[in-house]
């Protein structure tokens, strides 16, 4: 096997191991070329830097263990492809920004320097409303949110906003609340049918952050 191919295979195996150590099963992991897509909408680059702990120390619910360090000023760039959903984007951001006792703040930027790019991708799947990268081990927000505008354009405005808010949740470390192998944020235990971060609810899930969603956000991003 050529050296570069061997190195690439080794890197991909490291990423797979990391994903599985976060609690995801083989059945939840789909190979999408340069990325792995997990549990429908969580994206991991095959070239990502795998944290030294390889995910083994993660113990909190819907949380990958990596807090965004500039959480008071997470800059969101709206790609021209999705400007028609600016209202929904602003509504989604407002939900996260108004969580009581939390320092978390997303801000819209029109500049060339940003933390998250949100854009349209109508090719991500016939039943996938959106996808996003998780936050990273070096304290950065997941840098891209993809929205399947063709799929959600006929949903209610509240459901379109829900899709966007859900994907922003992944960029700041939240996994799916209803992932069976996930454990609890300290002090915010138990299942939550009303969680906006429940997976597999494209077009039908809760449209606002639940009480536990807010409690978990305040726990991870306290004032």
TrEMBL record:
Stored Pfam families: Peptidase_M57
Official protein name in the record: Dual-action HEIGH metallo-peptidase
Species: Pedobacter psychrotolerans
Lineage: Bacteria, Pseudomonadati, Bacteroidota, Sphingobacteriia, Sphingobacteriales
């Amino acid at each position: 096997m050529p050296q570069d191919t061997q190195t690439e295979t080794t890197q991909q195996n490291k990423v797979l191991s990391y994903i599985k150590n976060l609690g995801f099963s083989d059945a939840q992991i789909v190979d999408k070329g340069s990325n792995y897509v997990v549990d429908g909408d969580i994206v991991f680059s095959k070239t990502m830097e795998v944290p030294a702990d390889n995910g083994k120390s993660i113990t909190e619910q819907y949380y990958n263990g990596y807090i965004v360090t500039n959480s008071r000023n997470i800059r969101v760039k709206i790609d021209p492809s999705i400007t028609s959903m600016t209202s929904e984007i602003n509504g989604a951001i407002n939900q996260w920004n108004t969580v009581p006792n939390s320092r978390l703040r997303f801000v819209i930027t029109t500049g060339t320097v940003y933390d998250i790019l949100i854009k349209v991708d109508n090719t991500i799947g016939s039943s996938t409303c959106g996808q996003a990268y998780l936050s990273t081990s070096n304290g950065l927000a997941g840098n891209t949110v993809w929205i399947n505008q063709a799929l959600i354009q006929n949903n209610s405005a509240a459901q379109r906003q829900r899709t966007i808010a859900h994907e922003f949740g992944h960029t700041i470390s939240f996994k799916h609340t209803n992932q069976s192998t996930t454990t609890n944020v300290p002090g915010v235990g138990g299942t939550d049918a009303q969680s906006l971060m429940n997976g597999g609810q494209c077009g039908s899930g809760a449209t606002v952050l639940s009480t536990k969603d807010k409690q978990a956000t305040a726990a991870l991003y306290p004032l």
